[in-house]
DNA sequence: AATCCGTGTTTTGAATTCAAAATTGTGAGA
DNA sequence: TCTCACAATTTTGAATTCAAAACACGGATT
């Protein structure tokens, strides 16, 4: 297995909550599961620590990072800036073909909304946001966006949405698609920022950090990874 | 030596050009110089590779990253976005004390300009930009800013400035301080963006990437790290 | 009963070792 | 002379090993 593979495999495990937030990272177990020795595993952990997904405690191992409310706040703030920038650039650079793809994802997402299919809705939603970033044609931006969104992914997609919030999100996405089709960079930047600001407010109001934190603690205290999350 | 120390020591060496862009990274040498074994060195290299400062070639070692014009373009584009965001946030959160500090750095910088002291000028300049980012009170933003500015540091501070450009830069910095003192976030964001856009144009016009690339190649081809840079 | 102390165990961090891959150097043949 | 092939050497990537640090458990002491 290649270094980058180990990193992304491990990153996925963290994002999936296979190792819950705050839980100690079981080096030994992971070595067996990934069939690698400690050396490449630890290399990957250092990389993930630099990304902010893992907490490195000198001489006492590493833990899956846990987000505080402040972290969520700050990450969303930066995410707003990155998506706003992406929106502006996308309007300058996006092809008609790419707009068509995003429009299709948008309509599919609206259908998911009508069906009340949250999982599919989130999938399409993510596809749209990522499409806009990709259309900015800036790999540096894409990279930072990936790393920031990775850290808030759990907050973003695990927090349940209230029906009124969902309705508003749909309206906002209408405006997003509209601005994109008009190639109104400034307008798109503004609506994206507002959209994410609202999402953030929703998440912080729901007390995500506390929920996630408790889940992590529970899993930690009885040394159980899989089932504790459900039990907590 | 702690892991983070190795990373930042190594990062400094790359930024200083001690290992020139494009040059092979001499694992053995660095182990001796830092008095560590290959394991922690390689851990640091993977982290720096994730940061974009090091290029990892499977089975053929690692090289100091070399920036293309496109890289410089993209990095500055993102940097514009980050500083613009920082400027907006700073205007909401900065204390009078912090403004005073930045104002002092500004005036010192203007004095450096009058003296024609480019090195000191750049030092103050950086202090101002970093001060604005710090005033945004967002560690996530600071982190991304650090990593992006690290990658373009050589381009930013090694490219010589033409006298007219320098004069304009001073004007722009007047406007920056002014917006900050008025706590005009939107205005500050705009002027910062323009300021960095101009800087980028200057650098790309000067053909930084080619210059840096040649320097790296020369150092690579005769296996010499230190003296080649000066000789090229 | 609660706390402190000491011993044995586990875990961590880093050096070393080892196999595989790439690179270099040399000589044979065109 | 130039090119190709092949052996020797070096370098890489990862497993193993080893010392030091943290941890866990038990017994002694107050």
Describe the structure.
Two copies of one chain form a homodimer. The longest helix of chain A is centred in the middle third of the chain and has 25 residues, at 69-93. With 232 residues, chain A is an all-alpha fold. In chain A, helix 4 crosses helix 6 (118-135). In chain A, strands 1-2 form a two-stranded antiparallel sheet. The first copy, chain A, is built from eleven helices and two strands, in the order H-H-H-E-E-H-H-H-H-H-H-H-H. Chain A has helices spanning 3-16, 27-34, 38-51, 69-93, 96-115, 118-135, 139-158, 163-181, 185-205, 208-221, 227-231; strands spanning 54-56, 62-64. Chain A has two domains: 3-65, Winged helix-like DNA-binding domain superfamily/Winged helix DNA-binding domain (Arc Repressor Mutant, subunit A), CATH 1.10.10; 69-208, Four Helix Bundle (Hemerythrin (Met), subunit A), CATH 1.20.120.530. The interface between A and B is medium-sized, with 32 and 32 residues. The structure holds a DNA duplex (30 and 30 nucleotides).
């Amino acid at each position: 297995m290649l270094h980058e593979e180990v990193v992304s495999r491990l990153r996925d495990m963290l994002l999936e909550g296979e190792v819950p937030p705050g839980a100690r990272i079981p080096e030994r177990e992971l070595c067996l599961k990934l069939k690698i020795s400690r050396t490449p595993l630890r290399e990957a952990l250092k990389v993930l620590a630099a990304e902010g997904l893992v907490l490195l405690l000198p001489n006492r191992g590493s833990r899956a990072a846990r987000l505080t409310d402040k972290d969520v706040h700050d990450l969303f703030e930066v995410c707003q800036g990155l998506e706003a920038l992406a929106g502006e650039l996308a309007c300058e650079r996006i092809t008609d073909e790419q707009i068509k793809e995003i429009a299709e994802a948008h309509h599919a997402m609206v259908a998911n909304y009508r069906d009340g299919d949250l999982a599919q809705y989130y999938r399409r939603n993510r596809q749209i946001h990522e499409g806009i970033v990709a259309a900015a044609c800036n790999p540096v931006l894409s990279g930072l966006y990936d790393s920031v969104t990775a850290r808030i992914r759990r907050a973003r997609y695990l927090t349940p949405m209230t029906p009124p919030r969902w309705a508003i999100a749909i309206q906002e996405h209408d405006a997003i698609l509209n601005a994109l089709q008009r190639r109104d960079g400034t307008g798109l930047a503004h609506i994206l920022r507002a959209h994410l600001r609202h999402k953030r407010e929703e998440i912080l109001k729901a007390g995500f950090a506390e929920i996630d934190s408790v889940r992590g603690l529970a899993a930690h205290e009885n040394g159980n990874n899989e089932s504790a999350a459900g039990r907590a």
